[in-house]
Amino acid sequence: MDNALDAWFVREILVCEEALARYLRQCWPHRDELHDLRQEVYVRVYEAAARARPAQPRSFLFAAARNLMTDRLRRGQVVSIEPVGDMSLLDGLTDEICPERRFSGRQALKRLGEAIDRLPDRVRDVVWLRRVDEMPQKAVAQRLGISEKTVEKYLANGMRLLADFHYGGSGDHTASPKAAGHECEVGHDRQQAD
């Protein structure tokens, strides 16, 4: 045994026992594990100090405690992937992408692209920024120089028009500004800009 290490441990680490116990009680949800957790922290600190003494023992102690709790939480979240039954039964259930499904998917994407292209410019911009680029509503409003309320209206109208086109509507949304949600928003934005 290393008497110098033992003396260091008592002088620098064990004096923090009450603070460590309080910290673990605050952070660890399983009260029945606190004693074991504290002992494991001590083991980690002692073994690390045997290799090299930390410059800031108290900080090192609490970092070791935090790391130990993190490790335990990670281990608790690991899910076993061992097979439970006969895996050969699943072979017939795999869903391979056949040429027909691939073609159908391409057709659906083409139709969606056509629908997006038919949207009025401003509505298309809002739908694209919100749904494709996943930009926050406030950022879209700032970028396009319109109000957040107008972004909401354009998005709702755009999604309605896309659904209408997808489910068999004419899809001709460029001819009617009212259908696209332009009847009051454009004037509203102009008033805000003045």
Secondary structure layout:
Elements lengths: L2 H11 L3 H11 L6 H18 L5 H21 L21 H20 L2 H12 L4 H8 L3 H19 L18 H9 L1
What does this structure look like?
By secondary structure, the chain is an all-alpha fold. The chain has nine helices and no strands. Helix 5 packs across helix 8, helix 6 crosses helix 8 and helix 7 packs across helix 8. The chain is elongated.
Features:
194 residues; mainly alpha; Arc Repressor Mutant, subunit A; 9 helices
State the helicity in percent bands.
55-70%
Low confidence ranges: 89-95, 173-194
Strand content: under 5%
| Main beta-sheet annotation | none
Q: Pairing-aware structural class of the strands and helices?
A: mainly alpha
Short description:
The chain is mainly α.
